[in-house]
Amino acid sequence: MLDGIGPLRARVDERGTLLGASGIGSTAQIIVERVQGIDFSTIGKSFASRSLGTLSPADSVRANVAGAALSVRYSRPSARGRVIFGNVVPWDQVWRTGANEATVFETSSDLVVGGTTLPAGKYTLWTIPGRAAWKLIINRNTGQWGTAYDAKYDFARLDMKVEALAQPVEQFTIAIDPQGSGGVLKLEWERTRASIPFSRK
Fold this sequence. Notes:
This protein is mainly beta. Helices cover 4% and strands 49% of the residues. It folds into two domains: 9-48, no CATH class; 58-200, no CATH class. The protein contains one helix and twelve strands; from the N terminus they run E-E-E-H-E-E-E-E-E-E-E-E-E.
């Protein structure tokens, strides 16, 4: 008998090991049953054999702007509680603009990007984030890992507009926003948006 609860009957084996208990008829109305021991070794091996998934999954964005087919293929890292710009992504250094492989931009038609004519083709996109200004680098080299930047293949370095976002963006995002005969390429992460206008030539 437990004070305030009522009768609780326990079952034990010959060694005094608790096998179960019943509180039926008490205010607790519980039944307790002993279960087999937990094999933590087997559970641990099971979890160890599972894939944790990609921290920065691959993604793509496509748009048709004034008849030009545009696409961006990139990987999307997450903030995961970290300070991104000025920390994970240092200021004033070339950044792969994503994660893993270099970010790839492709256009089926000639464009004018930030005032510079960009012939149809495939390029990689890199950036130099700064506290007050960003540079977009359009590079002719493709197929490389995101740390294999080579400035000798640069096609252009262009100024980007930088804005502070009211709400933080957890996962790095690239968007193509069509507007009339052109549009805006937007990069968003943490509380920062960097963008550059373009039009079909």
